[in-house]
Structure prediction request, 280 residues.
Amino acid sequence: MNVLRKVVGIKDLRDARAALPEPVGFVPTMGFLHEGHLSLVRRAREQSASVIVSIFVNPTQFAPTDDLDAYPRDLERDAALLQEAGADLLWTPTPEIMYPPNFQTWVDVDGLTQPLEGEKRPGHFRGVTTVVTKLFNAVQPQKAFFGQKDAQQAAVIRQMVRDLNMPIEILIQPIVRERDGLAMSSRNTYLNPAERQAALVLSKSLAAAQSAYKKGERNAETLRGMMEEIIKAEPLARLEYVSCADYDTLEELRELTGKSLLSMAVYIGRTRLIDNRVLG
Ligand code: PAF
Prediction:
């Protein structure tokens, strides 16, 4: 069994990385790992000679009203899970390492960051693309693994890597769900039992729209309306958006003709959850 090595500083990371066999697969995370993260680590293990995981709760992708301070953390448990999943190196940089005093450089992806999560969470993607660029610069992986659960994030990172000619292959892993359909998320821990039950409206409404699509429904407004109705019927749910968009451009559709993305953000009590499904 491999032994997980843990580093904090960038020089220690670089020294440890230099000793690892290539290709290096990288899984960036914010910790409090669940089966979704571990599926990325296992895929990285299969597809790379070495696996590096980072845990960093990135303050710049949280709005002042978001849950940065409350974001769940358990480094010891995470390290044990990573060791078991076969990671070689865990990097846990501090905020001072990632954002030294007088930090002034940002990475911004334009069009793809405008709708959906970008519209509801201004500045979020600027924080994500900046930190992911910094993580990539430090780790220098050949491959990086992200989850389809954050579908727009995956699209934005693919775009950024293409636009900036980063020599990194981006691999997207399917959403991992609980047995009853709830998409795994570190934020699920905020839900009380009644909210946990109510949270099923996300996957249920996506499943209903997918089933209508399979029966031939191609009108995007009808599919959006169907999802909206199911969510609004749940008293603990507050809909932020539902979308039926082109998979590549993320522009809202009138008719579904090619690969499309159904997605949504819903508050269950005070917890904001997202989920999606790809059609076509
Ligand atoms: O998906 C996440 O956990 C974060 O957005 C990421 C990619 C680790 C950047 O902070």
